[in-house]
Each structure stands twice: as C-alpha cells, then as structure tokens.
Amino acid sequence: MARYALRRLLIAIPTLLAISFIIFALLDLAPSDPTANLPLTIPPEVREKIRLSLGMGEPFVVRYFKWLEQFMVNEPLNVLEQWTGWTIGDSENRLRVLSWATRSPVVDLIVERLPQTLWVVGMSYVIAVVIAVPIGVISAYRQYSLFDQIGTFISMLGFSIPTFFTGLLLIVIFSVWLGWLPSIYDTTHVVRDWDSFVFQVKQMIMPTMVLALANASQISRFMRASMLDNLTQDYVRTARAKGLRERVVVLTHVLRNSLIPVVTVIALGVPTIFGGAIITEQIFRVNGIGQLLIIGIEGADIPLVQTLTFIFAILIVLFNLIADLIYGMLDPRIRYD
Amino acid sequence: MTPLRRLLVASVACAALTATAAQAQRGADGQLNIIYWQAPSTMNPFLSGGTKEVEASSMVLEPLASYDNDGNIVPRLAVQLPTVENRGVSPDLKTITWDLKPGIKWSDGTDFTAEDAVFTWKYCTAPDGGCAQASYFEGVANMEAVDALTLKITFDEPKPFPYTALVGAESPIIQKKQFENCMGAKAPECTAQNFNPIGTGPFVVKEFRANDVITLEANPNYREADKPRFQTVLFKGGGDAASAARSVLETGEFDYAWNLQIEPEVLTRMEAAGKGKVVSAFATSVERILMNFTNPDPALGPDDRSVYKADGSNPHPILNDVRVRKALSMAIDRPLLTEIGYGRTGRPVCNVLPGPEQYASTANDGCLVQDIEGAKKLLDEAGWVPGADGVRVKDGRRLSLLYQTSTNSVRQSFQSLIKQWWAELGVETELRNISASVFFGGDPASPDTFQKFYSDVEMYTNNFSGVDPEAYMAQWRCDDIPGPSTQWQGSNINRYCNPEYDALTVQMSKTADLNERAELAKKMNDVLMQDYVLLPLIYRSGTSAHSNTLGGVRMNDWDSELWNIADWHRVK
C-alpha cells in the first residue's frame, strides 16, 4: 500500500505541473484588467504605470516560471522557516507571490482566512455527514416508511433550494423578524469565555445550517441508494440465515459495503471545504477562502486566483488518492500491491 | 420676548452647552460599526486608487485640505487656504505656499512637518511605483519645505487652480519616517506599512485584514483633545449592497453602510423599519450615453474601425448628423428613468457638468421633457423615412444602432426602456452588455472595452474628483482621441473633434478668476450638450445609510464620506 501511495504521489507531480500551466495560461489569456475597477477619474497613463508596476509588461513564459518558483520553492521555504525558526538562504529578499489588489503575500491572505472557512464550512460538512449517514441507513432499511418519506422530502428541499435562498430566508426570519442571530459574521471575534463561546455558536448557526442542509441531502441520498443496492444481495440473506442478529447484519455487513461509493463522495467533497462556500460566505460575510476567491476574480487579481485555484487542484488530487486508499481498507478484495 | 425670558432661555441654552461639553470626551461613545460591502484591500490609497481604499484610509491619513459637503475647500492640516489675496499663491500662479498647523503629531507621537508632505510627493512620483494618484501631482515641478511648517509647491506652468496636490482624500500625506524605504518598485513589498499607515487622522489601525475587516482605535495624539468620540471602529467589508443596507436599516447591527446602489423601492421599504435613514449627496457623477463620431462597422479593419481620421474620412454613417443625435435625446424620458432606476438617489439631468452649483448650466433643461413627435419630425427632416418594417431607411441604410454598456441590472433595464423609445421613432437598436471588468478594463487587445467603442452608442457613468472641472472638460479635445497609435488610450471616447471647443479648453487653462472659469465651463458644457455629443441621463448621488443612533454624519460626495468622522457621535 505504501508503495502504491508513493507511486501515485509521484505521478501526481507531472499532473499538477500540467494543471498549473493550464490554470496560469487560461487566466492569463482571459480578458481582464486589474485597473478596471478603479474610478474613471484615474487617467489611462497612470493605469498603464500601475499595470507595469504589477509586472504585466513581462512576457508570459517569464511570468509563469517566476510564479512557479515563488509558489513551489519560495513559499514552502517560507513556511518551513516560520515553523522551525531557521533561516535558509537569503530569506529577506525572497520573492513571494504577491496579490495585485492588496500587494501582500497571497499565502498570508489564505492563512488569515482559513480559520473561519474551516470552522464554518468544515463544521457544516461534519454535521452533514453525521446527519446524513444515519438518515440514509434508516431510510433504506425502512424503505417507504414515514421516516423515509419525510427524509426524502427534506433532502429534496435541500437539493433543490439554492443556498442563496435558504441563507436569505434564515436571515429574514432569525435576524430581521426575531432578532435572535447576527446576520453578519464577525471574523475578529475571539472565544475567551462562555459568553463569547455562545456568541460564536450563534454567529455560526445560520451559515453552518444552510450549508449542512445542502450537503446532507446529497450524502443521505447516496447513502440510501447504496444501502438499498446491498440489502437485496445474497450475502445479506446468508448472514441472516447464519442467525446473525439484525443489528450486526445491517451495521457490520451492509453498512460497510455500502460505504464504498459514499466514501468517494465524502472524500471528494473535502477539498470543497477548503474552497469555501462562495455564496454562503458572501451572504453571511464569513469572508473566508470562497469570498477571497470571488473578490480576486472580480478584481482581476490574477496571482491570487492562480494560487487559490492551484491549491484546490492539489487538494483534489490528494483526496482522490485518499479515497482510493480508504477503499482498500473497507473492501479486502481491493489490493494495491 | 421679554428680557427676563430671554435671560432664562439663554441660561438654559448655556446649561445645555456645558452639559454636552462635559460629555464630549475622546472615546466616550464606545464602538462605531461601519459596513462597506466592497472590502478595502489596502490602507495605502496611493497603491490602490479604489474608492473603498481611499475612504477607509481617510480615517487615518489626512490631506492639507478637504472638500466639505457643499464642495468648499476647507483647510485640515493647513492653517488656511492659500489664495492670491492672502499671498499664499504667487501672482504669476506658479507657486503656492501652505502654512501648516503647528503642534500636529503623527499617531506615533512624532511631529508632523512639511518634510512629510514633500516626501509624499516624492513617493507618489517615484518611477516604477505605479502610484494610483499620480495625476494629483501632475505639473508639480518642485516641492520644498521652507521650514518645518511651510510647504512651497512650484508648478511647471501657471496653475489657475492650484489645489490639487495633497488636497482631498485621494492625495493625503503619509509619514516620511515610515515609508522612507518603500519608494518606487519597493512600494508593494512594504505590506506592514501599507496595511498600518501612521497618520494624523482621528483613528489608528489596530488590525487590518485585507478584503475583510479593519479594526481601528482612537488616535491618542489627535489634535482635538475631545475627538474622536468613538473609542473603536469596526470596519467590515464584503457581501452585497442590499444586505449591507439591511444590517443598518432593519437589524441595526451596523451604524453606517456605504454605497447603497439598490432598487429605490427596496431601500424605501427597509427605511420604513425605522432604525435608520438613507442619506445621499450629489457631486459630479452623471450616467450618460456616448455617441460614436467614427464608423464602428465590423467590416472595417483594426486600423479603421472606430478610428478617428483627421481628414474626416471615417465619420459615423448615421450619428454624424446632429439631427439624428438630437432626435435620440428627445425620445428619452429622463424623469421616468430616474424613478425606475434611482428614486431619491438620482435626478434627471441635461448637463454633463452638473456641479458644483456655480458651474451648472441652465441652458439645456428642455431635455427633461420627452418629445417623441418632435424627434420623429427631426428624423424626417434628416431624410430618414420609415421602411416597410417600421425601421427608418436612408440611401439603402437602415437606422440601426448597437448600444453597449456594462453588465448591471439598472443599466440593462435602462437599455430596454431606451430601446423601446427609440423603436417608436423607427430606430432599431441592438443591445449588448459586457462584464464591467472587461468593459472598463484597459486591455488594448480586447474588442469590448469602452475605450475601443466598437459600437454606435455606449452608456456608463463618469465624474471628476474635487471641484475643478478643467481636466474633466478637457476630455473632449481633438488630441485626446483614443486610437491604435495611442494603444487606445485617451479620454475623448466620443472621438469628437471641434476646434472651437479646443480653443475654449485652452482659454480655461489660462484663466485664474473663478467666476470666469465657471462661465467658460458652462460654455463648454453647452457646446457639448447642444451638439448632442453625449446624452446625459441621470445625476447620480452617493447614497449611504446610517442608524438613528449615529449623529454628526454630513454626507459628502466631493470627498471621502468619512471626511468628518472625528465629529460622529452616539445619539442617545
């Protein structure tokens, strides 16, 4: 298994290099201008100077390799230095990937935003999985029961209603009418004591629930379908004939086998946590990674968008591998060596 | 009023005054929550130029003088406004001498001197710095600190309106000590300085999170001991305009929300919740339709399409006739557009130069009334006769126009309304909208920028900073027409060329008397309007909202909206 993982990791390197080139080229070729959002009162000569100061005057290949060096070599060295406190080479003058809009290192911006994204989007994902798996199991086991009908109904709602609608609906009900929950997420809030913890929970409830509903409905449908497939298999009848208790049949035999496709869905969903939830973050002003990406796109902040997109690409490749490895654990028939 | 009564009233008034004076104390009013739905990306206005960054930094950095809510220049770090009369401006109009207020300190406790002002000029004009506000320092030959409190600015040529450099929120003064090692190409690397500038203003940055939130606290060294009244400011960004308005007007979580470009009836409904009010201020923004004076035919090559030829060989086949341009203007119902798109936050307008008040012409107000019949008659006169399908034809050419603008719901509803009115005249209109970042982007390779103007008419808003319209009115000069030879740069987007108009702009650049300047500006406005070079539609205001518990807001569209934030206070 270790050899297999290593091989996959090595194959990932050329894949990621190709992805990085495609992302860079696509964004570079797209018509966009970082000075486009400036007021029209700023004259064109000044705009041209701004563009030159951002390095837009250099040829494409030069910019690509510069970015590659900054992202692949300089930034990891920087992280290493920060963690260990060592000084490696000329760290003062090492060029980092700078955002055009803020003129500050992109990686610092991402690090600043990770906490709120992981808290809100990550928490919603955890809640979604915790809710969805039991719902899926029970719905399948008691197919067409009242529980299944209600579960199906709710997950259909979660599927079909977009988050920008549920988000607004919750704000109107809980912030405007009832005044119970804040409609704007305070990213500067620090949890120190019980009261500040309660506030943190309050400001997380709405964005987390909106996202959890959307994710849970998807996962519970997969879980239910997969369980239904397995419940009619011969090995289930065999298990029952052996006199195993129903609990063991369902939870040990059927659940384990049904989890294989669901694990793929869950694992491939994890990178989207880091990607943030663009719309939900925007509505509740969680200002996490998703909002950073959308601001970067709107403001034509190309280095920021390139770096973020590439990080997502790395995460997707990585979690694909993790999903494959988990198959091996769940299903003894799958052997990678 | 009897003497006794008068005495009584006076003593009550005195008591009231002392009561407020006793309360007025720095930081007494706690926290101020401000929401800008576009989040500032830096606190250094010289590196961004965006309105949100300029306004956020105006809480910290200050210029020599600001514009108040009526567009008057008011001294801030300067003792008074230098003029020819008080000998602050030399008679040849080539130098201006500013006297700085004594005793002003930076928020780090060091003295503010004229050296800092000189440094700011050097910082912004350093090569490779990409300073976004460089145009404020145009024409400045030298700046010198005569002594610690006297700043002398010398211009290359006589400058009739010398209040540009270091005036207004867009060109504030930064501290020399802090930014000394951040000149030119090094500017973007100074992240700590750009995010936490040391200023003379009422607040100091405590924590800056780019594109998210800024926390500020009262500047302990601010020159007025009892100000600012708020101890801390939470400046939150992100989201959209409607929910920003909601957070002030409906939920009351925030005290002030900026730039609320949302449908007028939505705003009115939110205001009805009674938690706050909407404020707007008018300065110089005008939504307009530009006429293309050159031929944008797609069949033409890149060296001819929408390119002005000095010999007049490439005129617009339809819009070259002033009668057609006038008819297009007459068909538009400006009051109705205002009502639909802007409500209280806009006014129908007939001038491209609507303010300051003394510069606004009244000669063109006839455009406020829609006149479809008159417009039809004009087109008949011009030889355009209705064809079989209702679209007018002349010499085998259909009266068909391509009308482009940026993607924005108000603009798209304007497009469809105007298309309908023009259809009544027998004008066929094809609509097109382009993403704002492309349309307003300066990419010379893109065919969709407003500068390239590959359409017959296009619509957007423009304005000018400050109160002096000289540079703004000089946009329509013949030598400022964009084209392939200038990489499509140039401010005369219309490709309008009129030697008489050029002469007026030259005359204005040589006139110092403010009244004469106003007359000239009006005359230029009237030339543009009566030649129907562009059709002004809406005089747009800056629109914000503040909570009922926030006092002291004097909405200002000439300068930063937060220009007087030191005076803001909590109303109990």
UniProtKB/TrEMBL annotation, chain A:
Coiled coil: none annotated. The keyword Transmembrane helix applies. It holds the Pfam family BPD_transp_1. The chain crosses the membrane at residues 118-141, 153-177, 197-217, 259-284, 304-327. CDD domains: TM_PBP2 (cd06261). Residues 114-323 form the ABC transmembrane type-1 domain. It is a multi-pass membrane protein. It is found in: Cell membrane. One of its GO terms (biological process) is transmembrane transport. Keywords: Cell membrane, Membrane, Transmembrane, Transmembrane helix, Transport. Gene3D superfamilies: MetI-like. PANTHER family: DIPEPTIDE TRANSPORT SYSTEM PERMEASE PROTEIN DPPB-RELATED. Belongs to the binding-protein-dependent transport system permease family. This is ABC transporter permease. It comes from Thermohalobaculum xanthum.
From TrEMBL, chain B:
Belongs to the bacterial solute-binding protein 5 family. InterPro entries: Peptide/Ni-bd, SBP_5, SBP_5_dom. It is found in: Periplasm. Residues 73-476 form the Solute-binding protein family domain. Residues 1-24 form the signal peptide. Keywords: Signal, Transport. One of its GO terms (biological process) is peptide transport. It comes from the Bacteria. CDD domains: PBP2_thermophilic_Hb8_like (cd08513). This is Peptide ABC transporter substrate-binding protein. GO terms for molecular function: peptide transmembrane transporter activity. GO terms for cellular component: ATP-binding cassette (ABC) transporter complex; outer membrane-bounded periplasmic space.
